[in-house]
Specification:
It comes from Bowmanella dokdonensis. Its EC number is 1.1.5.3. The structure is a single chain. With 496 residues, the protein is of the alpha+beta class. The chain has 13 helices and 20 strands. The strands form three sheets. Strands 3, 4, 5, 6, 11, 12, 13, 14, 15 and 16 form a ten-stranded mixed β-sheet that branches. A hairpin with a 6-residue loop joins strand 17 and strand 18. The longest helix is centred in the N-terminal third of the chain and has 17 residues. The two termini are 42 Å apart. The structure holds flavin-adenine dinucleotide.
Length: 496
């Protein structure tokens, strides 16, 4: 039997789930397929910033910065559990960028879009006891947003499902035949190998770093646009300084490196830019990248780091819209959405480039392209739609409420659940009335109840899905604890 849908989206990264949610909410029947776990590729390997991109001003990308700055406010409002304000310090070293240039950039950053929830930039003198080296006497401060990128993908996928979309992780699109007004698409289940055919009026290629390969190998088509693959890596070290600030460090090569407070005890340091021509799914940090990141941090901070301080690292591939600039750092982070269809060809929608920050706008623009094909389609709606669990205004108040509702839960677990699930925490805990009701404890506050919830509601299947993308507990789990969770997921563990 062949299923029929209006729109089939290939790719379950942030752009694919964004398009699926937007289209489903406007009344289209939507199916999304993802060859692995949702968000496993670029969308969980970012610097996790919802930002305008201060440094893009140097490339005169005023349109991109304006859109991204405006989007910060939308996302901070719509997902207050997983997106939070973050204050940055930019240490001033006059020989790198003069103060007048930074002040001008920050003035634009403050004023290019309406700022509601974030404070303006400022110039601050460093007090004794600063974590920075003694020659750094002043910093510039400004605000942006922090996001749990992997959870953003899951919440947007849930939003899509809430509007009727079918979300199929572990399902690869292996080919598609184009007919006059429909595509016949072949999908293969990665677990069972089972193949099925789906008929769709529009096919959306949101395959991120695979976008070009999908065109060439699976669709046997040529695209007018090309992407450039650029690897970026991050390292995690024990928290350098617990002062609540993120730092943006200027490197002598003109690039910048972020040092961001991460989870409760770590600093996230990134990123690098390395041209890449391998398989995007197999990517890891190299020794020169580690040295580059450590040298940059050691150049600014009193605390000196060595490779032995690394707790974890990850790498991702940016699918950048090729604009033939020489250096990767100069290539635009903007996106392009292409709709191709002739009189006798079904429509193909393709996404090139983009950022986590602009996913919602990108999705809206992509679905707007389909109005001619589906005249009865609804209007754009996502700007004012809270993501699942985001229907509260203040995180500390939500944590207090949850503590009152579940007085038997340890305080740090309540705080983690609130940051991850927001008001969906009640759905995770359901009718539990005591710690034993949560079932088996796998370690570090991860109980059977939450594991079951993640499998039932958030498409989790493996330890990797649960420990690294749905939560960040992988930073604390040891091998034995991971194996016990793996056994449980395989159905062989003792659930008592
Ligand atoms: C190092 C780094 C730092 C970044 N930092 C930031 C930041 O701080 N802020 C920000 O806003 N942006 C940032 N970005 C950019 C942002 O992460 C990306 O633009 C975004 O995640 C791209 O999402 P995507 O959905 O296009 O791609 P992906 O997340 O890669 O999703 C594409 C998906 O398509 C799937 N797929 C491919 N082929 C098939 C097929 N045939 N069948 C089924 N599925 C298929 C893949 O498995 C993959 O999951 C950063 C990127 C990198 C690499």
């Amino acid at each position: 039997m062949t299923d029929k849908v209006d729109l089939l989206v290939v790719g379950g990264g942030i752009n694919g789930v964004g398009i699926a949610a937007d289209a489903a909410g406007r009344g289209l029947s939507v199916l999304l397929c993802e060859q692995q776990d949702l968000g496993w590729a670029t969308s969980s390997s970012s610097s996790k910033l919802i930002h305008g991109g201060l440094r893009y001003l140097e490339q005169y990308e005023f349109r991109l910065v304006h859109q991204a700055l405006a989007e910060r406010e939308v996302l901070l409002k719509n997902a207050p559990h997983i997106i939070r304000p973050l204050r940055f310090r930019l240490p001033h070293r006059a020989h790198l960028r003069p103060a007048w240039l930074i002040r001008t950039g920050l003035f634009l950053y403050d004023h290019l879009a309406r700022r509601v929830s974030l404070p303006p930039s400022a110039r601050v003198r460093m007090a004794p006891g600063s974590p920075l080296k003694a020659d750094i006497r002043e910093c510039f401060e400004y605000s942006d947003g922090w996001v749990d990128d992997a959870r953003l993908v899951i919440l947007v996928a849930r939003q899509a499902r809430n509007h009727g979309a079918s979300i199929l992780p572990h399902t690869r699109c292996t080919g598609a035949q184009r007919h006059q007004d429909y595509w016949r698409v072949t999908l293969q289940d990665a677990g069972t190998g089972r193949v099925r055919q789906v008929q769709t009026r529009v096919l959306a290629n949101a395959a991120g770093p695979w976008v070009g390969r999908f065109f060439k190998d699976d669709l046997k088509l040529q695209s007018q646009n090309r992407i450039r693959l650029v690897k970026g890596s991050h390292i995690l070290v024990p928290r350098i300084k617990d002062d609540g600030y993120a730092y943006i460090l200027q490197h002598r090569d003109g690039r910048i490196v972020f040092v961001i407070p991460y989870e409760q005890a770590y600093s996230l340091i990134g990123t690098t830019e390395v041209e890449f021509d391998g398989e995007p799914g197999k990517v890891s940090i190299s020794d020169p990248e580690i040295r580059y990141l450590l040298d940059t941090v050691n150049d600014y901070f009193c605390a000196q780091l060595a490779p032995s301080d690394l707790v974890h690292s990850y790498s991702g591939i940016r699918p950048l819209l090729e604009d033939n600039r020489l250096e990767a750092r100069q290539v635009s982070r903007d996106y392009r959405v292409e709709l191709s269809h002739g009189d006798d060809q079904a429509a193909l929608l393709t996404v090139f480039g983009g950022k986590i920050t602009t996913y919602r706008r990108l999705a809206q623009a992509a679905v707007n392209h389909l109005v001619g094909l589906f005249p009865g389609m609804g209007r754009p709606w996502t700007a004012d739609s809270l993501l699942p669990g985001g229907d509260f205004s203040d995180l500390p108040i939500l944590i207090c409420q949850l503590q009152q509702d579940y007085p038997w839960l340890p305080g740090d677990l309540v705080a983690r659940l609130a940051r991850q699930y927001g008001t969906l925490t009640q759905g995770v805990l359901q009718d539990c009335r005591s710690v034993p009701d949560l079932g088996r404890h796998f370690g570090h506050g991860l109980y059977q109840r939450e594991v079951d919830y993640l499998c039932e509601q958030e498409w989790a299947r493996s330890t990797e899905d649960i420990l690294w993308r749905r939560t960040k507990l992988g930073l604390q789990f040891d091998q034995a604890q991971t194996l016990a969770l793996q056994d449980y997921l395989a159905g062989t563990g003792d659930a008592s």
